[in-house]
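User: I'm writing a tutorial on reading structure tokens. Could you give me a worked example: one chain, its sequence, then its tokens, then a sentence or two explaining what the tokens reveal?
Assistant: Sure. Here is the example chain.
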Amino acid sequence: QVQLEEFGGGLVQPGGSLRLSCAASGNIVRVFTMSWYRQAPGKQRELIGLITVGGNANYGASVKGRATISRVNANNTVYLQINNLKFEDTAVYYCNADIKDSILTGSSNYWGQGTQVTVSS
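And here are its predicted structure tokens:
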């Protein structure tokens, strides 16, 4: 069984920064692409960005230029940093990953439980 767990949410002031982490644990053969999503109240879940095993990252338009996604493959952990936070960054942030959990099958897609980030003065 595989779990993804996010850490680091909370209350942040506008203009500040946040750093979230997400660790995969359990029966892991290999972790492939890892992604961050967010969902604001009343809105659809949106892709913030993703990072490949090789460390290539791509970002959505809403955070481009303000966000950095990184990962430590040895720890099966992915990080998200967003600078210059805005009120509209308030959302539940989710980690997502494609993980091979058996040598007998291909990869499966997993979600974390989400962590709340609130940008408020």
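What the tokens reveal: The CA atoms of residues 45 and 98 lie 18 Å apart. The longest strand covers residues 30-39.
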